[in-house]
Amino acid sequence: METQSKELTPVQKKRQALREISKVAKMMLQTEAMEEGNVNEIVINHFYTNETHQEFKSFKGWMKNGFAVKKGEKAFCIWGKPRDKKETDPQEENEEQGKKSKFYPLAYIFSNAQVEPLKKKESA
């Protein structure tokens, strides 16, 4: 038998790490009366937030508020909005038998410690 050891891509590694954190977050939601309503909120509030990182927004969210992400900063990962993903069974020949499932893409956010105010261009 041939064993293939595939190296995970950086995105796959991030997805895998977020899955592990999300498992803990789901258990926290089920066992404790948490104020937060979803896994992303638990991940942000209990795993990412500390003395340095207090507020989180997307790249565009910071831009709208007059801030730019500092060069070289690495984003925090959360789950994006679910998208429909159609799965088909290769053994089934009927095209209408496909099952629909949800695919959760990665979304990237930055904290207040990773941004700086935008520099306004001075008019000559």
SSE layout and pairings?
Blueprint: H1 10-31, H2 39-48, E1 56-57, H3 59-64, E2 67-69, E3 76-79, E4 83-87, E5 99-103, E6 106-111, E7 115-117
Antiparallel strand pairs: 1-6, 2-7, 3-6, 4-5
Helix pairs in contact: 1-2
Can you describe what's shown?
The chain is an alpha+beta fold. 31% of the residues lie in helices and 23% in strands. A 3-stranded antiparallel beta sheet has the order 1-6-3, sandwiched between helices. α1 (10-31) crosses α2.
Average pLDDT figure: 84
Radius of gyration over C-alpha positions, nearest whole angstrom:
20 Å
- In total, the number of strands is 7
Structural class: alpha+beta
Report the portion of residues in β strands: 15-25%
Which residue ranges are poorly predicted, with pLDDT under 50 across at least 5 consecutive positions? none
- Largest sheet data: 3 strands, antiparallel
Instruction: Identify the overall geometry.
Output: globular
H-E string: HHEHEEEEEE
The number of distinct structural domains comes to 1
Strand order of the largest sheet: 1-6-3
Number of helices: 3
The portion of residues assigned to helices is: 25-40%
Determine the N-to-C terminus distance.
72 Å
A few lines on this structure:
The protein is an alpha+beta fold and 124 residues long. The protein is built from 3 helices and 7 strands. Helices cover 31% and strands 23% of the residues.
Features:
124 residues; alpha+beta; 3-stranded antiparallel β-sheet; two-stranded antiparallel ribbon; 3 helices; 7 strands; 31% helix; globular
